[in-house]
Amino acid sequence: MKRAPIVIAGTVAGLVAVLEFHTTPVKLTLAGGSSVTPAVTPGASTTTQPAASGSKPARRAKHGSASGQTASRSATGQQANYSYGVLSVKVTVSGSKITKVTIAYLDDSGDPRSQLIDEQAIPILEQEALRAQSANIQGVSGASYTSEGFVQSLQSALHSLDM
Amino acid sequence: MGTVITIDVYPVLAADDTWTADLRGRLDRAGMVLQRADEVFSTWRRDSPVSRLRRGEITPAEVPPEVAVVMRACEVARRLSGGWFDPWAMPGGFDPTGYVKGWAAQRALRALDGLAMHGALVNAAGDIACTGRQPSGEAFRIGIADPDEPRRLAEIAELTACIATSGTYEQGSHLVDPRSGLPAARAASASVIGPDLGLADALATAIAVAGTAGLDLVERLAGYEALVIDWDGRRHSTTRFPFAPVSGGAAARLSQGHCRPATM
């Protein structure tokens, strides 16, 4: 299926907005701040955003790309904010089954507490993504953000694989 | 509010330039609604009207109109919650945060009214307002985080309105018992579903403090349902809480363990 993702990114006084637009959901992430100055980047790949605070230098993700019609394909999802920083997820699929989920990019600002949490949480997230293929949910309600950023990035990786 | 708000929109058709421009304008307005709410209600901003009210620099008669609206809504929520939600009993004075986050998210969602779409979700750090449905025609499915392991899901709910979840597991003990003024949480997690996200948020906060005794309050309230997960991981809910049907694979996992996995 032909896709035309549009990414709108603006940074004004700490605001980061990501509008990811496929044939499926449009996603806008607002991280506080004021109005958006859109910069439209049509293209087939996912896009990197600086962290919401704007204070950290954004490291560039290693972008995997959808690799044709072979049995095993992989893609790297768009970077997403999570509770302790920014991450993006790389997913590998075989046919319609997810075979591998890994973190392609992680910036937890080097804070020791964040690193400790990441060490514990991320292997769990990777495992859960493999086990949860049939859960099919559109959001998570919880006392705080938990794994939302992970899910966002994973979903964008799956979108780029037409899944 | 210092939180992340995500807006998901499910377009009816492949979106053209006109639709995208329409959406962009609406998202700008939604962003302004949220920003305005933060400026007016933040207890972290020293110069916000609510902060000035807390310090006694202005009287309730001098607040901006939306603060007056929220104060009245908080009075209603306090009454409906049997006093378990009480913004006037918070340390430091009147603190409507437990109502405002949901209230603002739902106002932001209204900026999308009239857009050609199947449905949309506004997720304010776990408090979710939705309109419409999935493109398949099914209700949105919302995972409820497991308080024992917040990176997993405890349950999945079908949502046609709003859902708020409250608990102490992510931010430590921030819930306060209005009757004692001391931190208290008799439930590990409380979720409330209903048409008004501000009230759902307030009731979730109330039940997280009150525990399963608070379920009766919601049972009596038309259009609202609640789920409590107690400290032993047991579920307690009102009679019509919209649990999503469990698919075969998920059912197998549920029978093995106590939770459904997160993501996807």
Walk me through this protein's architecture:
The complex is a heterodimer of chains A (163) and B (264). Chain A has a domain at 48-160. Chain A has two helices and nine strands, in the order ββββββββαβα. Chain A has helices at 112-131, 148-160; strands at residues 6-10, 17-21, 26-30, 40-42, 72-76, 80-82, 85-94, 97-107, 139-141. In chain A, the strands form two sheets. In chain A, strands 3-2-1-4 form a four-stranded antiparallel sheet, with no helix packed on it. Chain A is globular. The relative contact order of chain A is 0.18. Chain B has a single domain (5-256), classed as T-fold. Chain B is globular. The two termini of chain B are 27 Å apart. Chain B has 264 residues and is an alpha+beta fold. Chain B has seven helices and eleven strands. The model of chain B is unreliable at 248-264 (pLDDT under 50). The interface between A and B is large, with 51 and 68 residues. Strand 3 (26-30) of chain A pairs antiparallel with strand 1 (5-11) of chain B.
Which chain pair has the greatest contact?
A: A-B, 51 and 68 residues
Please give the count of helices of chain B: 7
In the CATH scheme, the class of chain B would be Alpha Beta
Spatial strand arrangement across the major sheet of chain A: 3-2-1-4
Helix content of chain A: 10-25%
Q: Tell the overall outline of chain B.
A: globular
Strand order of the largest sheet of chain B: 1-2-3-6-9-10-11
Overall average pLDDT of chain B: 84
Helix/strand order of chain A, N-terminal first? EEEEEEEEHEH
What is the count of β-strands of chain A?
Answer: 9
Envelope shape of chain A: globular
Figure out the total of helices of chain A.
2
Distance between the termini of chain A: 10 Å
Main structural class of chain B: alpha+beta
The percentage of residues in β strands of chain B lies in 15-25%
Which spans of chain B have pLDDT < 50 for at least 5 consecutive residues? 248-264
- As a whole number of angstroms, the C-alpha radius of gyration of chain B is 19 Å
Number of domains of chain B: 1
- As a percent range, the share of strand residues of chain A is 25-35%
